[in-house]
Design goal:
The complex is a heterotrimer. Chain A has 4 helices and 1 strand; from the N terminus they run ααααβ. Chain A is mostly helical. The longest helix of chain A has 26 residues. Chain B is an alpha+beta fold. Chain B has 12 helices and 13 strands. The two termini of chain B are 28 Å apart. Chain C is an alpha/beta fold. A 6-stranded mixed β-sheet of chain C has the order 6-7-8-3-9-10, sandwiched between helices. In chain C, strands 2-1-4-5 form a 4-stranded antiparallel β-sheet, covered by helices on one side. Chain C is globular, with a radius of gyration of 18 Å. Chain C starts with 8 loop residues before the first strand and ends with a strand. Classes of the chains: A mainly alpha, B alpha+beta, C alpha/beta. Chains in contact: A-B, A-C, B-C. At the B-C interface, helix 1, helix 8, helix 9 and helix 12 of B face helix 1 and helix 2 of C. Strand 1 of chain A pairs antiparallel with strand 8 of chain B, so a sheet runs across the interface.
């Protein structure tokens, strides 16, 4: 009877949800370590690749690559005097970013589907 | 009658709350958890991407020049003559002046950024995925995204439709880790850029680097220079930094405000879910009071339930956001917060996970679960048990 | 009508009335001017047809509800105007209540239901389990400790309810129809538990129709339409 009671007690204590708390604690530790890892990455100058690029180009890009577009950082004021988004559609306005967000632009050249790309072995 | 053990009481209530969530109402707990995940995951993703862009933007400003000078034609930027470099080189406090051409052009269907820098300043320390630095006229380094899209590898030759006569040869590809603005960028010599845009002896801007501590001196002299000669548009690093800070704070504020609205709209959803089994919950509370639980005991148990759910929701949302951004490069979700990356971004999505972001998620999660739940519990707990058990 | 407060009076009720307001115009007088006293170790039964106010009276005596009029004293203390939290402490310390409809928490096992009153007292889980099992064993439910209420018969659920009322070893036990809708074996075990309690000096107040519960009763109050119409003294406590 005593053995049965002990078995029942063990079953009870095991099913008290402590395992869920353990799982949560593990998840918290994991999240904390991810945070630390990310912070370490940023603070440990592992951004040297970014810095050398920006030094090489003299500083290009500042926002203007993110959506939604209704925010202040939509263009690089070092390169443009006005935010094109506010003056849309204005001919000649363009963003200095990989993201051309909703800008109507009339370019002298037309976009072409056929690229003139020649590989060296074709020369 | 039992002696009273306060510390043990709190532990008992905590364990009871855990048991309620995990064993007794697992379905309801799962629904609430999924709801929290659905709300917090995009929030955390958006904030982390925003912080990532902000961090890269800061680098862009920090590693840039102290001053940027362009011509001013009726409020729009205008190119300057290359010879006007002398105006600036001789100013007190100026360390060096770098002429630059930054422009845009179509390559295929994509707009690409063109950056032309003086040959003497073209560095070997650029982080390249492959290839080498520029050594001769006509050689270019392309961004990783461009290289992938158009299969531009070392040795590829191409021209840009804006000037068909100007041919370029790819000698290197920028590493994808060079900030997002490198993805669709073509790096070339100043001379090549001038020929491309038919801007002989012209530049789009001058980068002015001041001696350490001489920024105010240079600032004053540049303003004097501006009054004296042709109109110029000047941007200082401090101005840009303040603009950047204001812009991103505003954006973060907008984002947060947007999500607070989303959270507010989610409160009814959570209340509905909490309502599942509300009759049962009422009876449960009434019974607990009937057998001697105090109102504070009942509220503490409910509080533990909410705290555990919020903690679990926020933690899982954080882990999911982290893995989604870092592991899957923001597949599908990045397109809602970054322009033009498409379903699968072809450049590393910038992200930065800050503790403040995690705390905000937890705070919002708590607010969401506690709203209604705690008040409802309290209201029920102060009602005489006999009325509720009838 | 007044009743003298004796030294060993556990409960004293004076002029208790309870009105339930169903709407602005409709109300129900569940109790009308009830006066009674229960002594220590006394076994009291409330008899009456359905709707006579037995449950309402029991709830008020058990500090689960408040009277609309009148005073109620527990161990000499006037509890009529006490706050809800003080009433909670009184219930926890002094009273074990057995509900008519069992009122077990459906998602807790039998032993967990029994040990609910011990949770806010800071009794450890192991201790709670052992004490709950001991009580359930006395009531013949040793094989059912981990079963949820839906896995138990009506009689077994009632026995769990009895065990829950006794877990804190209260001085006063109030039972509302404890043997209704249960099998005879369960009823027998409940009676045996009551007898054991009384032997230890507990006071027992039961609302019931069941004549088998009248065997050792000291006083029977007859209720009709919320009033005490008769009081029978059967045996001296």
């Amino acid at each position: 009877m005593e053995r049965k009671k002990n078995k029942a007690l063990r079953h009870t204590l095991a099913s008290s949800g402590l395992w869920a708390i353990l799982f949560l604690a593990l998840a918290l530790c994991l999240a904390a370590s991810f945070l630390l890892l990310d912070a370490y990455k940023w603070l440990n100058r592992s951004d040297e690749g970014m810095r050398s690029f920006q030094r090489a180009v003299g500083g290009v890009g500042m926002g203007a690559a993110s959506a939604p577009a209704w925010n202040l950082i939509h263009y690089d004021p070092r390169l443009q005097s006005v935010d094109d988004y506010n003056l849309w559609p204005i001919v000649g306005g363009y963003p200095y970013s990989p993201a051309a967000v909703s800008i109507v632009i009339l370019f002298r050249e037309h976009p072409r589907k056929d690229l003139e790309i020649v590989k060296t072995d074709e020369l | 009658m039992e002696p009273f053990n306060t510390r043990r009481k709190h532990w008992n209530l905590f364990l009871t709350a855990t048991g309620n969530l995990v064993q007794r109402t697992p379905f309801r707990s799962a629904i609430i958890l999924i709801s929290l995940l659905a709300i917090l995951f995009p929030f955390l993703t958006a904030l982390s991407i925003s912080e990532g862009i902000k961090a890269q933007s800061k680098i862009s400003v920090e590693e840039g020049a102290d001053f940027y000078i362009t011509g001013d034609a009726g409020g729009s930027s205008a190119p300057l003559s290359r010879t006007s470099i002398d105006r600036f080189q001789t100013l007190p406090g100026v360390s060096r002046v770098v002429p630059r051409i930054v422009g845009r052009a179509y390559l295929g269907e994509q707009i690409v950024t063109i950056v032309g820098m003086p040959e003497t300043l073209i560095v070997d320390t650029l982080s390249l995925m492959s290839g080498r630095s520029i050594q001769q006229k006509g050689e270019v380094i392309v961004g990783a995204s461009l290289g992938r899209t158009y299969d531009l590898t070392e040795g590829s030759r191409f021209y840009l439709p804006i000037n068909r006569w100007k041919r370029f040869t790819v000698v290197g590809t920028l590493s994808p880790s060079c900030t997002i603005w490198s993805a669709k960028l073509i790096y070339m010599s100043l001379e090549d850029a001038g020929e491309l845009f038919r801007m002989k002896d012209m530049v789009t801007d001058f980068l002015i680097y001041a001696n350490p501590g001489d920024n105010p001196v240079v600032n004053i002299h540049l303003q004097q220079e501006n009054r004296a000669g042709l109109p110029l548009r000047m941007q200082s690093r401090e101005l840009i930094q303040s603009y950047l800070q204001k812009g991103f704070d505003s954006r973060t504020g907008v984002l947060t405000a947007f999500y607070i609205v989303a959270f507010a709209l989610s409160v009814p959803l959570i209340l509905v879910v909490w309502g599942l089994g509300s009759v049962e919950r009422k009876k449960e509370i009434a019974l607990l009071k009937a057998v001697g639980w105090e109102t504070l005991d009942v509220i503490e148990m409910a509080l533990w339930e909410n705290v555990l759910l919020s903690l679990a929701g926020a933690t899982l949302a954080f882990l999911l956001a982290f893995l989604w951004i870092k592991g899957f490069n923001g597949f599908f979700i990045a397109q809602f917060f970054l322009a033009e990356p498409g379903l699968v971004p072809d450049f590393p999505v910038p992200s930065r996970f800050l503790p403040i972001t995690a705390f905000m998620a937890l705070f919002l999660s708590l607010a969401l679960t506690l709203t209604g739940s705690l008040y409802y519990t309290w209201r029920t707990a102060i009602t005489p048990s006999a009325e509720l058990l009838r | 009508m007044t009743i003298e407060q004796g030294l060993d009076t556990v409960i004293r009720a004076e002029g208790l009335s309870k009105t339930f307001r169903l709407s602005r115009l409709r109300k129900v007088d569940a109790l009308k001017d009830v006066t009674l006293a229960v002594s220590k170790n006394e076994y009291v039964v409330f008899r009456g047809p359905s709707g006579s106010g037995k449950t309402t009276l029991l709830n008020i005596l058990g500090c689960l509800g408040r009277p609309s009029l009148g005073r109620i004293y527990l161990n000499g203390e006037d509890v009529t105007e006490l706050g809800e939290e003080e009433l909670c402490r009184i219930r926890r310390k002094n009273i074990g209540f057995i509900f008519q409809g069992f009122n077990l928490l459906p998602r807790m096992s039998a032993w967990e239901n029994v040990s609910i009153p011990l949770i806010p007292l800071g009794v450890g889980e192991r201790e709670r389990f052992l004490r709950a099992c001991a009580l359930l064993e006395r009531l013949g439910l040793q094989e059912r400790v981990h079963h949820s209420p839906e896995e138990l018969s009506g009689g077994e659920q009632q026995r769990v309810s009895v065990a829950r009322a006794l877990i804190n070893e209260p001085d006063l036990i109030l039972a509302d129809e404890p043997t209704s809708n249960i099998d005879s074996d369960s009823a027998y075990k409940v009676l045996a538990a009551f007898a054991s309690l009384r032997a230890k000096g507990s006071t027992l107040v039961v609302a019931t129709h069941d004549h088998t519960l009248f065997q050792e009763v000291n006083t029977v109050y007859h209720l009709i339409d919320g009033r005490i119409t008769d009081k029978e003294l059967k045996k001296r406590p």
